[in-house]
Specification:
Elements (H helix, E strand, L loop, with lengths): L3 H12 L13 E7 L6 E11 L2 E5 L10 H8 L2 E6 L2 E10 L1 H14 L2 H8 L6 E8 L1
Antiparallel strand pairs: 1-2, 1-4, 2-3, 3-6, 4-5, 5-6
């Protein structure tokens, strides 16, 4: 179940064709729906993204917390996802990116959104990078 903050972002996103204000104003946001690894329920989370060719890249930063966000654990357990970008809905598969490719993509996200450098500095964990291979739903 989304917390109140996430639910407000989700509602604003859906009401405004994928655009939101506040701290995410101007950011590229995707509404990522995963299947709960424990509950089996559909859970939607707003996440910043960037494109890498045809793929959509998301970062499981959790604002630099010392543990991975729930949505990351969900998609590792159930890689089939639904993604809303703008007014379009996609279905696809998530894949965790490792090694040099992970590092290259994380560095690109830092260039787009410098806050991701701060998140990495705040935690000992290696923040996962996830590639979404999406098709129109």
């Amino acid at each position: 179940m989304a917390n109140d903050f996430n639910q407000q972002v989700i509602d604003e996103f859906r009401a405004n064709g994928g655009k939101v204000g506040g701290m995410f104003e101007g950011a590229s946001l995707v509404l990522l729906t995963t299947t709960g690894r424990k509950s089996g329920k559909q859970v939607t989370t707003p996440v910043m993204y960037m494109k890498d060719g045809e793929r959509v890249i998301v970062i499981a930063s959790y604002a630099g917390a010392d543990h991975h966000p729930a949505w990351y654990h969900n998609l590792v357990a159930h890689p089939e996802v639904t993604a809303e970008i703008g007014t379009e809905t996609y279905r696809g598969k998530a894949e965790v990116v490792e090694g040099d490719e992970r590092d290259r993509l994380y560095a690109r996200m830092v260039e787009i959104a410098p806050g991701f450098a701060e998140y990495e500095a705040k935690t000992e964990r290696r923040i996962p990078v996830v590639a979404l291979d999406l098709q129109p739903a």
